[in-house]
Each structure stands twice: as C-alpha cells, then as structure tokens.
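Tokens for chain A. Residues wanted.
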C-alpha cells in the first residue's frame, strides 16, 4: 500500500469508530479506539482490488460474520472491494466492539464514577438513582449498537420507538457484567417491549415469537402479533438468558 492508500484507510477508520492508528506501512494499517478494546488490521487483498479486514477477538469475529453472511471467504477475514465497503465494515465492527461483553459494563463503571465525583452530597439513594439511570442508558446504547439501531424482530429503525428489553431483569442479575451483557436483552419496539417485560410474549430457541394465551385473538390482531414473527437472529449467548425469560413466561401461563 502506498502513502495515499494508507491515508485513505486511516481517514475512513477515524470517521467510523477507529480513531487511533497503531501502525501504518506498505503492508498493514493497525487500528484501535479509546471507546473499546478491539483492534483492526487492514491489508491489501492479494491479486484483486480492495482490502481485507481482520478484527481481534473470537466473539467480535463471530458477530461481524453475522453481518457479512455470504461474502466471507476465510474465517475472521472480511473483504472490502472499495473504500465505502471498508468504511461500512469498520463502522459495524466498532459498534459491535462497543456493545459486546464486557465493554458495556466497563463504560458503565467509568460513567458512574465520573458522575458521582461531581456530586458533593452522595447519599445511598442518590447513588442508587445515578447507577440506575446510567445503567439504563448504557444498556440501551449497547443494544442500539449491537442490533444496528433496529428492532430485533420487526427491523423498525425509529430510535424513539425502540426500548432496551432485559431477558433477565436488572434486579435478578448477580453482577453488573450480567446486567449490562448485550446478550441479556433485545431491542424491541415499545409495544413488543411492554408485552415482553410483562411475560406476555417470549421467544423459542429458534427465535420464533410465542404469544401468551392471556392475549385474546382479537387483541393479538389489534396489537399486530401476526403469525411468523421471529427474531432477526439469535446468538448462542442469548440462549441462557432466554431460557430464564421463557421459564418465567410459562410460570405466568400456569397461574
């Protein structure tokens, strides 16, 4: 890669979540960010136009692969035919890196510490409220990043309509890493969130929406719970949390 090509890559990286250049030469550009712990490596694609992107961490590689289905030739290597394609890959990789465990928990702890330092009189209730608010904001942003700003079921991408829905509730989690785990929730539209939170809907192991018998067919129709609603994807790390939610759902059905 020549100087101009390296500069082009560095500019695309800076604009898409990778503001630190750790290395830049004729063979590779290595990128990082203060907002997450991942690294990215960009190399020229052999015998063809474009570049190859590699990212650190097996989980990040797996989740980025989900976004690039059908275009990956080698595991962990993501081709970009032009600078627009590379920018899109870098942007998605950065969003995932900022949301995947346990980056959200680290972001939360830093944000809480900063806010509490600025408050002179810190009582137990004030601290609890700060932690709750920052935790909710951090978790929602993590889900927005992970799901690409769109509902996990419908694909609706209107931010004001979207809610961060916990699978295992905040109060039931044993630690912040569990509470803020991006796999412990789905990004849902407000109506689906309300139903999900009250155990009136849940999802099967394959992501198919399960509707409570407590919702009448007419109400189900009015709400928009049509047959075949399914999660856009479901990762293995969702499954333990989903099993917890589904157990609560069926317990409520038996009441």
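Reply:
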């Amino acid at each position: 890669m020549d100087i101009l090509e390296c500069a082009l890559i560095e500019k695309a990286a800076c604009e898409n979540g990778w503001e630190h250049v750790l290395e830049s030469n004729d063979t590779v550009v290595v990128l990082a960010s203060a907002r997450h712990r991942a690294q990215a490596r960009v190399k020229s694609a052999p015998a063809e136009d474009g570049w190859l992107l590699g990212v650190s961490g097996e989980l990040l590689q797996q989740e980025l692969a989900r976004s690039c289905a059908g275009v990956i030739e080698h595991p962990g290597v993501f081709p970009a035919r032009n600078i627009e394609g590379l920018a899109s890959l870098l942007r998605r990789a950065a969003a995932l890196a900022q949301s995947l465990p346990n980056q959200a928990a680290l972001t939360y702890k830093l944000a809480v510490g900063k806010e509490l330092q600025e408050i002179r009189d810190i009582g137990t209730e004030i601290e609890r409220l700060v932690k709750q608010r920052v935790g909710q904001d951090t978790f929602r942003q993590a889900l927005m990043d992970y799901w690409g700003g769109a509902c996990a079921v419908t694909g609706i991408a209107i931010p004001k309509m979207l809610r961060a829905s916990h699978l295992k509730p905040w109060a039931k989690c044993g630690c912040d890493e569990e509470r803020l785990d991006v796999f412990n929730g789905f990004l849902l539209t407000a109506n689906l969130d309300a139903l999900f939170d009250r155990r009136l809907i849940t999802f099967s192991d394959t992501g198919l929406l399960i509707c409570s018998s407590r919702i009448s067919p007419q109400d189900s129709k009015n709400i928009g719970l049509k047959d075949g609603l399914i999660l856009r994807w479901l990762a293995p790390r969702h499954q333990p949390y989903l099993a917890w939610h589904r157990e609560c759902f069926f317990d409520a059905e038996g009441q």
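The chain has two domains: 3-99, 103-253. The beta strands are 20-24, 29-32, 40-44, 51-55, 77-80, 162-166, 185-189, 201-203, 209-211.
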